[in-house]
Amino acid sequence: MRNFILRRVFLGLFIVVFGALAVYTVIRSLPSSYVETIARQRASNPLSTKSYQEWIDQLNEVYGLNKGIIPGFIEWGGNAIQGDFGESWHYGVPVTEKFTEVIGISLIVNVITFFVQIVIAIPLGILAARKQYSATDYAVTVFALMGISLPTFFLATILKYVFSIRLGWFPLYGLTGRFYTTMTPFRQFLDQAYHMVLPIVTLTMLSVGGLMRYTRTNMLEVLNSDYIRTARAKGLPENVVINKHAFRNTLIPLITTLSYILPGMFTGSQITETMFQIPGIGYIAYQAMIRGDIPFAMFYLTFLLLLTQVSLLVADIMYAVVDPRIRVN
């Protein structure tokens, strides 16, 4: 196991480095950037004595964009190894400071969504498999397919129209209300929780369908296995057959699916956060990337690459915890 973990760590680092290089190359090749926007603004100032091209040259030199892609990436990587990811061009503060400021919001929303998703999707997937081709199975399948098929922006718009505009039950956007600053700490907590309801419902409806279908498919495969028929032939109660024998073997493919949810917890949901204007890491990173903010975009995407490799490593270790046969092999 130790040698396996070491090999996976080195492979993960290799993927992160070359993934970061690919990201850096793409960002440097964008048709517009923060530098061009600022140069255009400064050149249009009546008090400016420099032309647009002079501002471009000066700002490129200040930000190191006058170097080639490989030298620029090596310089960025050397600073990143020391924990220096630079200052966000768009937000004007160190990248890590801005990240720390907004990550908590996305983490809370996605962790709640994760547990709600687990509580809903896995039991319904098992129930649909146990009652295959019944009305319950068809109802669960239709609900799952709706969640898989609906685009994020469409579902968020429908929920906002129904529950915010028509019914007025929830706020249309934002994380806090108008009188947030005058509230007590407990009331502020309730106000933020109230504003998070629709984003959490949106994320849950979008994510629960895939896990539900995946659980149903794998549970059906396990229930048709010989050892399940043997357990039933021995007279074991159905609950014991499902919960002790069938579900444990269903966990192995489920772990693969759940491992990809971990990066989403820390990287936010860009479309949902943007639709509801929740200032989480997804919304903040989106605003930075469309403005060509290279330092923040590089930190965010490299962090996502690293977190994905960590989640896959955790999934491989969990295989051995769930299935002893993997440890033997």
Description:
With 329 residues, the protein is mainly alpha-helical. The protein folds into two domains: 31-84, no CATH class; 103-328, MetI-like fold, CATH 1.10.3720. 77% of the residues lie in helices and 0% in strands. It has 15 helices and no strands. The protein has helices at residues 2-28, 34-43, 52-63, 69-81, 95-130, 135-149, 152-166, 185-223, 226-233, 238-259, 261-267, 270-275, 281-290, 294-322, 324-328. It is globular. 28% of the residues are buried.
Tell me the total number of β-strands.
0
- Overall structural domain count: 2
Rg of Cα set: 25 Å
- Specify the overall morphology: globular
Taking pLDDT < 50 over at least 5 consecutive residues as the criterion, the unreliable ranges are: none
Question: Which descriptors would you attach to this protein?
Answer:
0% strand; 329 residues; single chain; MetI-like fold; 15 helices; 2 domains; globular; mainly alpha
Task: Give a nutshell description of this structure.
With 329 residues, the protein is mainly alpha-helical. The chain is 77% helix and 0% strand.
